[in-house]
Amino acid sequence: MSDQSLTREEAINLYGTEAATGWGRTEADANFKPVGSGGGDYGLSSFDPSSIPVSQPTYVASTINVDDYISAIVDTLPAAPDKYTEANPFYFDEQAANEVATAEFSPYYNELLQDYLGDVKLTADKNKGDATRILADLDKQKELFFQNNAQEFDKTIRGIKEGYSGKGLYFSGENTRTQEEAGLTNTNKLEGYLNTYNTNRGGTMATNEYQQTQARIMSEQKARDIAREKQTAILGGVNTQKDEAIDEYLYGMKTYYKNPDWKSVDPTKLSVANETGDTTQQQGVSY
Q1: What are phi and psi of 23, to 5 degrees?
Q2: In whole angstroms, what separates CA 26 from the centre of its chain?
Q3: How far apart are CA 162 and CA 170, in angstroms?
Q4: DSSP letter assigned to residue 278
Q5: CA dist 189 to 136, 147, 156, 185, 193, Å?
Q6: Going by C-beta distance under 8 Å and a sequence separation of 6 or more, which residues neighbour residue 192?
Q7: Exposed, middle or buried: residue 197 (CB in 10 Å: 0-12, 13-18, 19+)?
Q8: How far is CA 37 from the centre of its chain?
Q9: At 272, phi and psi to the nearest 5?
Q10: Measuring CA to CA, which residue among 46, 44, 39 is closest to residue 28?
Q11: Please, are residues 175 and 169 in contact by the beta-carbon 8 Å criterion?
Q12: pLDDT confidence of residue 205
C-alpha cells in the first residue's frame, strides 16, 4: 500500500480506529498498532507515567560543621541580657522614706492636736476661773453672814436682858432660860448656814475637778487618735513612695528588656522615658 492518506475505512480496518484517517501509512504505523498485533487496546498507544523524566536532587555531603554554623549565627544576634533583678536589684530605703513622710505629715497633725489642746485648755481654764470666783463669793458671803449674825445676836441678848431688867427680873431664872433659848436658836441658824455653805463649796470644787479631769481625758484621747491618724498617714506616704519606686523599677526593667542592643545597656545608668516626658533615672531606685 502506498503512503497516501488513509481513508476512514482503511484507518478502521488497519488500526481499529478512525483516528488514523488522513494519516500516511508510515506515520500511522508509528503511532497506532495494527489490528491483530495484540494488546486489546484498540490500537491506542499506551502512556507510561514513569517515562516522564523527573528531576531528582543530588545529595552532596556537607563539609560545614553544624556547631560552627550555629555559633556563626548566634554571633550575629544581640547578646542575651543579664537577668535584670541580678544586674540591677531593687532597693528601697524604708528609713529614708519614713523620714520624708514624717516631715510631710507631722506638721499638719501636730497643728491639729495643738489647736484642739488649745481649745480644751481655754475651756478648762475658764471652768477653773469660774469655780475660783464662786468659792471666793461663798467665803465672802460667809464672812458677812457671821458679822451680821453676831450683831443681830448681840442685839437680841441685850433686848432680853433689858426686858427682864425693866421688870425687876434681871437675875431671875426666866431671864437666863430666855437667853439660852436665843443662843440655841442662833447656833442652829449658824449650823444651817454652814451646812449650806459647805455643800455649795464642795459642789463647786467637785464640779471643777470633774471638768478638769474631763478636759485631761479628752486631751489624752484626742492626742492618741491624732497620733494614730498621723502614723497611718506616714505609713501611707511610705507605701506610696514604695509603689512609685516599684513602678519606676518595673518601667526600667521593661525598657531594659525591650532594648534591642543589650551590649550597649548599662543597667545601673539606664535612661527611661515616662508618659509625661523624658527623665533619666538610675535603676535600683532608692528613697
Answers
A1: -90, 155
A2: 103
A3: 8
A4: E
A5: 22, 13, 14, 6, 6
A6: none
A7: middle
A8: 101
A9: -125, 155
A10: 44
A11: yes
A12: 96
In degrees rounded to 5, what are phi and psi of residue 7?
-80, 175
Helix H or strand E encompassing 279: strand 277-280
**Domains of the chain, residue spans:** 1-46, 96-245
Give, in order, the Cα–Cα distances in Å from 119 to each of 105, 113, 115, 261.
22, 10, 6, 66
Residue 224, amino acid: R
Rounded to whole angstroms, the Cα distance separating 107 from 215 reads 24
Which pLDDT belongs to residue 110? 95
Look at residue 81 in the predicted model and tell me its pLDDT: 53
* DSSP string of 264-276, one letter each residue: G--GGG-EEEETT
Q: Which residues contact 215 (CB under 8 A, 6 or more apart)?
A: 120, 121, 123, 124, 127
Confidence label for 210 from pLDDT (cuts 50, 70 and 90) = very high
**pLDDT tier at 274 (50, 70, 90 boundaries)?**
very low
Model pTM? 0.53
For 19-41, b/e burial (b = at least 16 CB within 10 A) is bbbebebeebeeebbeeeeeeee
| Amino acid, res. 82 | D
Closest CA to 248 of 220, 268, 272, 221: 272
Residues 196, 188: Cα–Cα separation, whole Å? 12
Give the residue carrying C-alpha cell 488497519.
14
* Residue 140: pLDDT band with limits 50, 70, 90: very high
Calculate the alpha carbon distances from 245 to 87, 198, 248, 284 in Å.
Answer: 17, 70, 5, 9
